[in-house]
Amino acid sequence: MGREAQAGPQRSCIACRREGDKASFLRFVLAPDGSVTPDLEEKLPGRGAYTCVARSCLLEAVKKRQFGRSFKGAAAPVDGAALDSLLQEQMERRISGYLALANKAGVATSGGEAVERTMKGSNRPNLLVLSEDISPAIGEKLDGLAQRAGVPVMRALTKETLGMLLGKESDRSAVAIMSPGFGQSLIRELVRYRNYLEEDSGR
To answer: CA-CA distance, 174 to 28, in Å (whole number)?
Structure first.
């Protein structure tokens, strides 16, 4: 079977015109009031417009009024800053949701000492999440343990937010995810969020 037969649905970015697999883009649709809204799960009905997973492409699409062209004049005027903020909020909500679900399922271990024990145990985590504001010393120590154990490390949210999502009365700067399913889902969401902010977009 040739490469063309194996390829998934193709799309192009309305800002930079890069072409690629549909899964590598962000989809936007029109809400009933005509406003442009993100469709991160790609389940909303109607025509879609796509940008790269990069803030610069989103803002460039707004600047060039490409959403209006893509939706054939049916889109309401787009506020780039507001759409950017909405998209980040939705991405953060998805990350938070997976963390909360992992905790509810009993597969999230938090706290520096507890996380350190999992790194040294026989049942290794599938993902280590460190808060964005973790202390450099603790972050470096846990990062080193994770690397030696072959555990992926991602940074996200604040200590206060992690603690709240895990139902703790105190902050949590590290969370070990002990589930392949939740680990993979969180990695996917965290990588997309990081790439959108262009911390490591590969562009």
So the answer is: 33
